[in-house]
Write a structure and sequence with these properties.
Strand 26 and strand 27 form a beta hairpin. Helix 1 packs antiparallel against helix 2, helix 28 runs parallel beside helix 30 and helix 37 crosses helix 39. The strands form 11 sheets. A 6-stranded antiparallel beta sheet has the order 24-23-25-26-27-30. Strands 3-2-4 form a 3-stranded antiparallel beta sheet. A 3-stranded antiparallel beta sheet has the order 6-7-8, with no helix packed on it. Helix content is 49%, strand content 6%. It starts with 24 loop residues before the first helix and ends in a 5-residue tail after the last strand. It is flat, with a radius of gyration of 46 Å. With 1892 residues, it is α+β, with helices and mostly antiparallel strands.
């Protein structure tokens, strides 16, 4: 590589110095130091040469790539660590050399010290979370990294957080892009002053080493790029090269991060042209360099680019900077340089031709500027680096390196110029790319950094012709996908349009270029250059015309189209992005008078382009039938610039308008669109499929409307204001195809429209006219008025959330304005027109969001139906607005009936558009109005109330906008040239209203009734002619009228005779093949518009003479006409309002109205009803009756169902039945009767046909989450905070069980505790019952049902057939008596001793069930199967606790624990205590009773050995039996360690069911004695030695008093003395402080302790008693809960007086002498504590006071969660998860859907939900702020508990506004978790297939 020696003076290479072998770091350091010293000498040639030679060796490019090519073999052979070793070696050398012998890290730190960090410039890639503050931004693209954002002060600003789509860079510190007030603390200081100068020698080595290093990189890139054979770069190869280069590029990236000093060295290296020339020229003898240069040239060529030296120069000088290269048209046309490129284009595109079916069109290449498209010359490293970056399709690493350099100003300019120079090449690469999405993002990532800066953009525009380049490149890009337009004249059309089926448009490949263009046009200086440059404007209009008429729709007339093309998405997106957005950008700079010239330029070239377009499509005057395109960007450019000219620049409209003929042509296509909209809504296009509806909707949709429908309507308004009104009106009705309908005759024939479409088309035409005449968006409204009108329209349709309002209100999509146009005015207008409705929460209701709703005065004065109609995407929204309006009027008492849309006064017209009002005062319109009023009055078919409403609206508009000069007496006689004088005398509506029309001559089909009536021969011609003079109106043909007008205008404009109307169009009006013959008839009318209105009033009100002129009573009306009573109402009100206005406008009208009212109107003659009409009437009547019948049936059905629901709910409800029983007062009780909700029969549950309750079984760990603290734990939001789960109820119980199992016999341990704190089975029911066989067939039918349900039938899931609640099992109802049965067992007076004996005997009797288990009945089978279901509900690990797997003790434990779980959960649902009393809230719906029976049945299968039965230990004194116990066996659990509640459940479930009340009470009494003893023992441990001895003394004294057994002092002292015999209280020295509570014990506090210890047991027992015997729970205060419950349970003697303070000991009722049994119990403990004193003590203290479970407490602001968790690494896979989530129950951080943490096909969230919640998981998705619920195999999105300031969720953080916790929502979530109602309340469940 000798070529590189040029730096050393170009002489021959000196002999190589003896360099130490590279290898030892020490040597490297020494060499580097030596070289640095050599180079620091003044004469450093020798040093330089030496360094060059060293670099030659180290950075040789041959090795690595050769290795890379053979890397596979090398790797296989294990050849020297693969290709990476050499590179690493080279990098090590470079680092050493840069550091000049010192340590590299120290070197980095030294360089950083000189960094003048004024800019942040942090570069990020896609998905990074950044911030945008619109208050601080100058450019809308401004963005900040999170660190800079939080360091700056943005309080109260309009900011949001966003997830970067394409990547970006932080702008903090750059005052070109953002205001300095927003800089963060680090970048506020302009620190250049205080940073010392960089010492010369620090970076000296870098200047020598880096050029070689970068050149080496470029050589790698050249080597690695192989021109692919089929024009498709094989991505694998490219990626391989890039992977090899990863370390090198990362090294460069690290250099850029060293700060400003290093960046400036790099800039020097990258932009220095001499270095580049010397190193890359490829001359010299080095073969490798030659080869590399050749490769580079090949790559250039294959890219369709030429290297200027290659003798291919086209004789084009570099165009001089000033002149536009485009103005010079037609140069170099002959040198078809595009040939080569086009051919390659054709090939790679032809493959995809299938979609676009039509042949592509190629334009001649003469319009191109070759220097822009095809020539590239690289002069520096930077340029070639960018070239390769593009070639390799923008690898992320390279992009980041290039962007990291941007804070260096010099580099920024150089790089921007280089980027512009490569712009055409970027476009070509992008078009060919397969990953165009990724590539687009990377391009924009770069360009947005360059072009957002106005100063830079201006500089490049001036020096590099940026605009020329961009426009040419865009034009060239679109040319590759043009096809011939089929609009209008298919054969001869010369127009070409883009083909929307092409990938280029379908995939939006063009957007990076368009977005750059929009970006630079947002800078005023650049936009002005564009608007001044005529050549550019011409080219741009040329570009826009490619989109004019694209995506043409042809109406299918025969069959439905087979393939619905979806190209319209692409078409709308293309027009919006490529045409409309640049237009808005340009418009934003035409705001003041001085910019008039610009507008004139644009308008001029627009009209020229339009003229060319009309010529190209061969357009004369008739649009081709049955086709429509929604895309007319040229029309819209023209319209918007006109609007701007008049509104902002005070231009005279007429000075920029073309001639009449052009206006006539201009209005045709926009009008065609309006008519087509009506046709689409009338279902005339159904055969074109749904997509045509989609187009109609998109056209008016909020993001498009102000670039599409608004300009169209405005353009029509301009045309209407300048053209002849009669011509315009007739054109409208002709376009809408309803001309034939506008006849006085009752029958007519429409040649172009089916009868069923006529009415809606007529409505469409009239609605369009109303919109045209009353819309003022561009005709004089100010921006704020527009915003207000838009907002009112949206709010009237529906209440809206803040974000949906922002989305629905069309903003000028003007890039300067950022996201929201003038968001300050937005907020102020919003608060003026709407009230905020804060979200309300009903648990179980839907999650509401904060909504805005219109204020009352808005409904009253501002509701504008016209605006609503214009803006509705769905027709139902108009109805919704009217319904809301009606409701408002009813509510406020303004109008009770069904109102009509109100008439709203309009903003005054801008003077330029005054001509628009002539439409209201033209005879054609008046004839139409007159005809329609007449037809409505005569009840002709096809007319609706809507038509009448619009007709009246138009009349009212005319009266509001009448010409004031009308004098009353004038009889305006016009010249004879008017064709229909016989209709109206003048053209003013006010005078025409009173004009009477006597006869009308009409053409009717011969079958019409008008003809038959006139059979007499007297209608001879002479009598007709006499009629003529008496004011007969002629047959009125709109079409003829329009033709005539058109002819006149054409002839006026060009007198050539060849411009005759083409005959082919006229032929379609006469329908030659029509069967009906038309004939002329004369109708007698004798009405005027006024008289018709008054008759209509009578007709609408249904009364004769209902109208009475109000001014006759109250003359005031005429003076102040705005009367509130007329502003809202129905048609009658509207007619009255119009008549009043007519009277006000002219005295004549007033007089005539009075006259008409005086003549009593004769009743309208009864119409002769033809047979056909009668038939339809009958049909109507029949339909009406059928409807009524159906209503009645439905009502009946509903009431039946209601009563049925009520009875169904009452199953098992004690309250309803008790009074009835007592009334009959007979001891025998009927069997319980159940209704089956499937077959509807009711009856008892029998053994053969058992009935069951619909139940949902679910595993639950809610109980396990209880803690002994009321405050919930906080979610950790920093590394310090952690949650440790060992104080939860589940953990404590686990520890206890494992401790017992260590020291005692396993089977006995399993009876001493309950399980089910985690994974316990909870059973709930909706209360409905069904026969079990019915249920089986129901399940069968569900299984065969193919509909996708939200549940899995195979797992036994179903929904209750009646109430649709989710369920998964059926719990059989035990045949037999009602619950109340037990009430009749009067408490017997047996002594407790007798009862104890009975209990013992009953327990011993196996299977004492009425049903013998041996006989297999249906019932017993069902009981077994439901028990299986219950077992399978929870996981095995939550069932098996025994040391010997599968032992029966396990099942036994599991079964009574199920009962415990359900009781404990019900207690929690009641708030943790029973103070509220009353029947269970779930009373009707409780299934505990049935559950108990099922459990008891199964428990009795496992009889306990009578020896082990704890019952005997509780009730009998046992003689010492120690002799029996072999020492090798583990002892049984001492009775004092038993859990008393578990014992209770065991005893009760072991009894035969149903249980007798006195037995129950007996068991409770016995157990209470044990519980009390436990409490005393625990208390004795809690206190210290002195207290103990004191109590021992006091108690001993009272021991012999009468009720010693009921005195806690005595008992306590006895317990202490007994336990002192063992070692329990010994060796306390160590642990004393831990156990002993510091408080001094007073008698009160001891009593409180004992009560609290016993309360949980009493609560559970009372609940159990309530369920088993149906007794109500008494309510009480919290203090007296103990006494009330104990008396309710029968523990308190009834004669107990409540005066003196209550003492818990008084409830004791010892079955055997207390002291004996206590000493027996204590001795067990003593024998245990002999060996294990510590454990013995721990086991005695049972923590029973659990507080209610809670979810974690969340922080106020969501950002605190987000910032901590979204970057947190997962503890399992140590990566930052893509979708992080956190469990709200325990705070565990998990990867949602992460495959990294998958175990046995379960993803982490599902796994965690099983471990933490036994199948129920509640996770907060960090990146979406949404909560997701996992329940078993299903999941659902629950919603968010964080809302923004407007009370809305922000799912996926799309809006990125600050979010705050909504406490109510969180409470609802917690409530659903605790009450296990997720399944019932949330409706949208789906399977997760373990993938979450």
């Amino acid at each position: 590589m000798a070529a590189a020696a040029a730096a050393a003076g170009g002489g021959p290479q000196p002999p190589q110095p003896e360099l130490p072998a590279p290898g030892l770091a020490l040597d490297k350091a020494a060499t580097a130091a030596h070289l640095k010293a050599a180079l620091s000498r003044p004469d450093n040639r020798a040093g330089a040469e030496e360094l060059q030679a060293l670099l030659e060796r180290v950075l040789s490019a041959e090795r690595p790539l050769a290795a890379a090519a053979d890397s596979e073999e090398a790797a296989a052979a294990g050849g020297g660590g693969g290709p990476g070793a050499a590179e690493e070696e080279a990098l090590e050398w470079c680092k050493c050399l840069l550091a000049g012998g010192g340590g590299y890290d120290e070197f980095c730190a030294a360089v950083r010290a000189y960094d003048p960090a004024a800019l942040c410039g942090l570069v990020w890639t896609a998905n990074f979370v950044a911030y945008r503050c619109r208050t601080c931004g100058i450019s809308p693209c401004m963005s900040l990294c999170a660190e800079c954002f939080h360091q700056g002060d943005h309080t109260g600003h309009d900011f949001n957080m966003f997830r970067s789509q394409a990547g970006g860079a932080c702008d903090c510190g750059d005052s070109n892009v953002m205001r300095e007030s927003g800089f963060c603390k680090r970048h506020q200081i302009k620190s250049s002053s205080n940073i010392p100068c960089v010492p010369k020698d620090l970076l000296m080595m870098s200047e020598f080493v880096l050029p070689r290093f970068i050149f080496c990189l470029i050589q790698y890139l050249r080597e690695g790029y192989n021109e692919p054979a089929a024009d498709v770069p094989s991505e694998k190869d490219l990626n391989k090269v890039l992977q090899l280069l990863e370390p090198q590029i990362s090294f460069l990236e690290d250099l850029t991060k060293m700060g400003g000093a290093m960046r400036s060295v790099l800039t020097q290296v990258l932009t220095n042209q001499q270095n580049y020339k010397d190193l890359t020229s490829g001359l010299g003898e080095n073969s490798c360099a030659k080869k590399s240069h050749e490769k580079y040239l090949i790559a250039l060529k294959s890219s369709g680019l030429t290297y200027p030296e290659d003798k291919l120069v086209y004789g084009i000088q570099e165009p001089s900077a000033g002149t536009s290269t485009l103005a010079v048209q037609g140069f170099a046309g002959a040198t078809g340089t595009l040939g080569q490129l086009d051919s390659s284009d054709e090939e790679d595109q032809d493959g995809s031709q299938g979609l676009g079916k039509r042949k592509r069109v190629k334009l001649s290449s003469s319009t191109k500027d070759q220097s822009i498209m095809d020539v590239l010359k690289h002069k520096s490293f930077l340029e070639e680096l960018l070239f390769w970056t593009i070639k390799y399709e923008f690898p992320q690493k390279m992009v980041t390196f290039l962007l990291n350099m941007l804070p260096d100003q010099e580099y920024k300019v150089a790089f921007t110029k280089t980027f512009v120079q490569h712009y055409a090449f970027i476009m070509k690469t992008l078009k060919k790319s397969h990953e165009s999405d990724t590539m687009s993002n990377r391009i924009v990532h770069i360009s947005v950094q360059l072009f957002s800066n106005e100063e830079l953009a201006r500089q490049v525009t001036e020096e590099c012709q940026l605009l020329d380049i961009m426009v040419t490149v865009l034009l060239y890009m679109m040319e590759s996908c043009l096809i011939k337009s089929e609009l209008q004249d298919e054969e001869n059309s010369l127009h070409v349009v883009v083909n929307c089926g092409e990938a280029l448009l379908k995939n939006n490949t063009y957007w990076p270029l368009v977005s750059d263009f929009i970006n630079i046009l947002s800078h005023q200086s650049v936009a002005k250059r564009f608007l001044e440059d005529h050549g550019l404007l011409v080219t741009w209009m040329n570009f826009v015309s490619f989109f004019q008429g694209m995506n043409l729709n042809k109406r299918e007339l025969n069959e439905h189209v087979e393939f619905e093309s979806q190209t319209y998405y692409a078409a709308f997106a293309a027009e919006l992005e490529a045409c409309a957005q640049p237009m808005w950008g340009l418009l934003s700079h035409c705001k003041v008078r001085e910019t008039q010239e610009y507008t004139k330029n644009v308008v001029r070239y627009c009209i020229e382009a339009l003229q060319d377009w009309f010529d190209a499509i061969n357009f004369v005057d008739e649009p081709a039938p049955n086709q429509v395109t929604f895309h007319l960007p040229l029309h819209r450019y023209y319209a918007m610039f006109l609007s701007k000219a008049v509104k902002c620049q005070e231009l005279d409209l007429d000075s920029v308008l073309p001639d009449q003929e052009m206006l006539m042509k201009l209005m045709i296509h926009p009008l065609q669109i309006q008519a087509s909209l009506a046709e689409i809504h009338s279902n005339m296009w159904v055969r074109n499929g749904l997509q045509i509806k989609g187009q109609a909707m998109t056209y008016v949709q909020s993001h498009f409307c102000n670039s599409m429908i608004d300009p169209d309507i405005y353009l029509l308004q301009v045309c209407a204001s300048r053209l002849d009104p009669d011509y315009f009106i007739s054109s409208v009705f002709e376009r809408f195809k309803v001309v034939d309908l506008l006849t006085m005759a009752s029958q007519h024939q429409n040649t172009v429209l089916d009868a069923e479409h006529e009415r809606s088309m007529l409505e469409g035409a009239l609605t369009f006219l109303v919109i045209l005449l009353s819309l003022r968006l561009h005709l004089g409204m100010s921006d704020d008025e527009i915003l207000r009108a838009e907002m009112v329209a949206q709010l009237c349709m529906n209440d809206r959330t803040h974000s949906s309002l922002l989305d629905l209100i069309p903003e000028n999509p003007n890039p300067k304005s950022g996201i929201i146009p003038g968001s300050y005015s937005f907020e102020s207008v919003l608060s003026a027109v709407a009230d905020f409705k804060a979200p309300v929460f009903e648990p179980g209701g839907s999650m509401q969001q904060g909504m805005y709703t219109p204020k009352a005065e808005v409904w009253d004065q501002e509701f504008d139906p016209v605006m609503v109609i214009l803006r509705t995407v769905y027709r139902r929204d108009v109805q919704s607005a009217m319904d809301r309006y009606t409701a408002f009027l009813k509510q406020s008492g303004k109008f009770p009936g069904n109102p009509w849309p109100p008439y709203k006064k309009r903003t005054p017209l801008h003077p330029s558009y005054k001509g628009l009002m002539r439409l209201l005062h033209c005879k054609t319109l008046h004839i139409v109005l007159f005809t329609l009023l007449y037809k409505i009055l005569m009840d002709h078919q096809n007319l609706s109330e809507h038509v009448l409403c619009m007709v009246l609206y138009l009349i009212e508009l005319g009266l509001e906008n009448s010409a004031d000069e009308e004098s009353d007496e004038e009889a305006s006689v016009c010249g004879p040239e008017r064709c229909h004088d016989s209709w109206f005398p003048g053209s003013n509506l006010v005078s025409n209203m009173r004009h009477f029309i006597n006869y009308v001559r009409v053409r009717v089909p011969e079958t019409a009734p008008e003809v038959k009536r006139d059979s007499s021969a007297s209608t001879s011609s002479d009598s007709l002619s006499s009629l003529h003079n008496s004011g007969t109106a002629q047959v009125f043909s709109l079409v003829a009228e329009r033709r005539k007008k058109f002819q006149e205008i054409i002839n006026r404009s060009n007198s050539e005779a060849n411009q005759v109307v083409r005959p082919k169009t006229s032929s379609k009006w006469s329908a030659p093949g029509s069967a009906l013959q038309l004939t002329t008839a004369i109708l007698e009318i004798k009405e005027s518009i006024l008289s018709l209105l008054i008759k209509l009033h009578h007709k609408l009100s249904g009364k004769q003479n209902s109208y009475y002129p109000p001014w006759l009573d109250d003359l005031e009306i005429l003076i102040q006409p705005e009367i509130p009573k007329y502003s809202h109402g129905d048609g009658i009100t509207a007619v009255e309002r119009i008549l009043l206005k007519a009277a006000l406008q002219s005295r004549m009208n007033k007089r005539i109205i009075e006259e008409i009212c005086r003549k009593v109107t004769p009743p309208v003659p009864p119409k002769k009803i033809t047979a056909a009409e009668k038939k339809t009437l009958d049909k109507e009547e029949r339909r009406q009756k059928a409807r009524e019948r159906q209503q009645k049936l439905l009502a009946e059905f509903a009431s039946r169902q209601k009563s049925f629901m009520e009875t169904a709910m009452d199953v098992d409800s004690p309250e309803n039945d008790i009074p009835m029983e007592i009334a009959t007062a007979e001891p025998q009780v009927s069997e319980a009767v159940y209704d089956c909700v499937i077959c509807g029969q009711s009856g008892p549950s029998s053994e053969d046909r058992p009935t069951g309750l619909v139940v949902l079984l679910q595993a639950s760990s809610v109980l396990g989450q209880c803690r002994d603290n009321v405050e919930p734990k906080k979610l950790p939001i920093s590394e310090e905070e952690q949650i440790y789960p060992w104080d939860t109820c589940a953990a404590v119980h686990d520890v206890r069980l494992s401790l017992l199992q260590r020291y005692f016999k396993d089977s006995s341990c399993l009876l001493a505790v309950s399980i089910g704190w985690e994974g316990g089975v909870y059973v709930q029911t909706c209360g409905h019952t069904l026969h079990i066989d019915c249920h089986k067939s129901y399940m069968e039918s569900l299984r065969n049902d193919q509909v996708l349900q939200g549940f899995s039938v195979d797992k036994g899931e179903f929904t209750c057939p009646l109430c649709r609640q989710f369920a998964n099992s059926v719990l059989p109802c035990y045949p037999g008596n009602n619950v109340e049965n037990n009430l009749w067992q009067r408490p017997s007076n047996k002594s407790i001793q007798d009862l104890i004996k009975e209990v013992e005997e009953l327990q011993g009797r196996p299977g004492a069930f009425p049903v013998s288990i041996s006989s297999e009945t249906n019932l017993s089978k069902e009981m077994e199967s439901v028990m299986k279901d219950i077992k399978n509900t929870t996981q095995k690990k939550y069932r098996d606790y025994s040391k010997t797997p599968g032992s029966p003790d396990n099942d036994f434990l599991f079964m009574y624990s199920v009962a415990r779980t359900n009781l404990e959960l019900e207690l929690i649902h009641r708030g943790g205590n029973l103070c509220s009393g009353g029947a269970s809230t779930a009373g009707k719906r409780s299934c505990l009773n049935q559950l108990f029976l099922v459990l008891a049945l199964h428990m009795r299968l496992y009889s306990i050995d009578s020896e082990y039965n704890p019952w005997s230990k509780l009730t009998q004194l046992v003689e010492e039996m120690n002799s029996q116990l072999g020492n090798e066996e583990q002892p049984e659990v001492p009775i004092l360690y038993h859990d008393v509640t578990s014992l209770l459940l065991i005893q009760i479930l072991m009894m035969p069911q149903p249980l007798r009340k006195d037995h129950f009470t007996c068991i409770v009494k016995v157990l209470f004695t044990l519980l009390y003893t436990q409490a005393l023992a625990a208390l004795s441990i809690k206190c210290n030695e002195e207290d103990r001895s004191a109590w021992k003394q006091t108690g001993a004294l009272k021991k012999n008093t009468c009720d010693a057994e009921k005195s806690y002092e005595v008992l306590l002292s006895f317990v202490i003395s007994e336990l002192s015999k063992g070692k329990l209280y010994h060796e306390e020295g160590t642990q004393e402080c831990a156990m002993v509570s510091p408080i001094a014990w007073s008698p009160e506090s001891m009593e409180k302790y004992l009560q609290d210890f016993c309360l949980p047991f009493l609560r559970i027992t009372s609940l159990l008693q309530h369920h088993l015997f149906g007794e109500d729970l008494p309510s009480c205060q919290e203090e007296e809960e103990f006494s009330v419950l104990s008396s309710c349970l029968g523990l308190l003697p009834t004669f107990y007086q409540t005066e003196h303070p209550f003492i818990s000991a008084s409830c004791l009722d010892w079955p055997v002498p207390a002291f004996d049994i206590i000493s027996q119990w204590c001795s067990e403990i003593n024998s245990f504590t002999e060996r294990h004193a510590e454990q013995g003590k721990a086991l005695l203290i049972q923590e029973s006071r659990w507080k209610l479970p809670h979810l974690l407490q969340l922080p106020e602001n969501y950002n605190t969660i987000f910032q901590y968790y979204h970057r947190k690494t997962c503890s399992v896979c140590t990566k930052v998860p893509k979708d992080p989530a956190v469990c709200l129950v325990c705070g565990t951080f998990v990867c949602l859907k992460g495959l990294c943490c998958k175990q046995q096909s379960y993803c982490e969230c599902v796994l965690h939900s099983q471990n933490c919640g036994a199948g129920t998981g509640i996770f907060l998705l960090i990146n979406a702020s949404v909560i997701i619920i996992i329940r078993g195999h299903r999941f659902c999105l629950w919603g968010s508990v964080y809302l923004d300031a407007h009370g809305e969720e922000d799912r996926d953080l799309r809006r990125g506004k600050p979010l705050y916790i909504c406490k109510e929502r969180y409470k609802v979530l917690e409530q659903q978790w605790i009450s296990h109602t997720f399944d019932h309340i949330n409706k949208r469940w789906g399977p997760h297939y373990n993938g979450l």
